[in-house]
Design a protein that fits this description.
The complex is a heterodimer of chains A (about 550) and B (about 110). Chain A is α/β, with parallel strands linked by helices. Chain A has helices spanning about 1-10, 30-45, 55-70, 80-90, 105-115, 115-120, 135-145, 150-160, 165-175, 185-190, 195-215, 215-225, 230-240, 245-285, 290, 300-330, 335-360, 440-450, 500, 535-540; strands spanning about 15-20, 25-30, 365-375, 380-385, 420-425, 430-440, 455-460, 460-465, 480-490, 495, 515-520, 520-525. Helix content of chain A is about 50%, strand content about 15%. Mean pLDDT of chain A is about 70; it is low at about 1-10, about 100-120, about 225-240, about 400 and about 530-543. By secondary structure, chain B is mostly helical. The chains are: A alpha/beta (about 550), B mainly alpha (about 110).
Amino acid sequence: MLLTNQLKTNQRMNNIFHINLGGIPLTIDEDAYKILKDYLLDLHNHFKDSEEKEEITDGIEQRLGELLSENQDNGAIVSISMVENAIELMGRPSEFLDEEPDDSAEKTEDKSFDWSSLKFGRRLFRDQDDNVLGGVCSGLSAYLGIKEPVFMRIIFLILIFGFGVSIFFYLLLWIIIPEAKSNSDRLKMRGEPVNVDNLSKIITEQANRLGKKFQNLGEDLSEKMGGKGSSNKGFASKEFNIDNEFIRTIIDGISKVFQFIKKAIGSIGLFYFALLWVLLFIGLNKGHIALDLLPSATATSNLYTMITLALIIGLPIFFFGYKFSQLIFKSKLNSTVSGVLVGTWIASIIGFSFIVSKNVSEYAESSTITETIVLDANHETIQFTGLVKPFINQPELKQISIDFKESNIDDFVGFETNIQFKESKDDSFYCLINKTARAKNKKLASQRAESIDLSLEQNNDEVIIPLNLQLAVNDKFVAQSGGITIFIPKGIQVSFDDRVMKSMPYFADMESCKVFQLTDDGFNCAKNNPINSSEEVIEETTL
Amino acid sequence: MKAENTKAQMRKGVLEMCILGMAAKQEVYPSDIINKLKESELIVVEGTLYPLLSRLKKANLVDYSWKESKAGPPRKYYRTTDEGNSFLLKLKENWLQLVNAVDQST
């Protein structure tokens, strides 16, 4: 046990890189390479707004190369301690005496501007050093102060099975959260202690950034829109001639493809949400009646549904809008605010899933009720008249300006009665009415079916057929359906009004016929039925 | 007004003068400047030099030329321009005035 521990600490196996630092070839240990790379990234970040960036960084890189190569003659490999010594000698960018004198006014303004980030200390980044995919989970963990990112990953995995939303959510975060590129980013990700040193550093950084912000607006935009990739990436592949150029090229290629895919997802997502947003506005304006018909709908739950829907769709739009303004103004979303927004969004999704599952449970059981009505056939001609009623007997729903007397049954998709005419086997004239509804359990389902208003009425020779169902007051639409099957004995003369004709497609080719008779081969025009004269038909048949 | 800020500003001004002075005498390599400045404890971290050099270059006070080195890549050697020489003279004048003033008043 002791032996293996010693092996671990003293003779750990490490990769060695051959690099070219400021034109000086170096052999460097992998861990030392990482530290050096972080330092150089910091350096490039620090001077990225400076016109003489190349000149300054080239000089420092060459000097670093000289410092590190002092021991190379005897074949030594550059180690962590050597890199650390050299960096200490060179100093951190923030220690350089190159800051321009600041306006004190600007300083105080900045203090208030960045107050929250001083207070909370942490920024949300993706951690690409500890990643499975995009480092979103490890970044979130660091942000929330959870030591093991595994827990965050488990939550995401569970959410995939639970709601399936976390895949989409992950992609969204991948796009939105910036990657931690340098050491200082990583510090910010874990949260730095707020001391005088950090305070003054942040203030000067902010002052610099504000000053350069508008100055760099144009070039920055063109660079980003052109999709050149960040300047840091370019520098990494240019300055570090890592041995295996071939693999390097492949990795670069893959990362470019990935960046393109991310951008594509981003723009598709933006378009998708813009579309949804429009639909949502239309939906919320027109659809509150539809919401009322949801099985578990009450005034409160409808409000809840509307709010959660608006949040689910609206927040990502806000995020995308913010991302876009970030491109233009280079500002950062306050991490606490974004945390709250993300939290609200997740809560909305959970709430909405709850509403949906509650509604779905109302469809669990189905029940059908059948009743028979005997009709009187002792008339010369039976006249079938179609009747259209408001599909739900609720006062507020009558606001919809539909003229029920004039409207077609086509306007009530999903509520129409299934009407059938059949030959009666035993010469009796009757009809069967069946009503079906769904609910949480059988009993409720049969109660609901019972409450459907669907029946037939006969006034002398006129039989009135309801062409649509009418739901009971305060009932919801839970896939109720109803059918009327009318059994007609052979030889009886029948006629139908226009609405009944229209609801039965097989009469389409007999439009000119007004009075029918049921024969062995279906409905036929009655013999004493003069063609093309409806008024006369009635007169003659009643004679 | 902080003593720390003033010190940094003063140090920066003096540093610029010293760098110009060195580059006025002969062509100098940044690493040589660093070694001399460190002897006199004028700079704390070496990195300070490079932004200063590039600022002087931008102000057209110094210029550099590339020279082959015995080992390693070609090096930049800095030398003051005519403008830099006259600027240095003025700086020295000002410096002497300052030193006199400080001597007399403290």
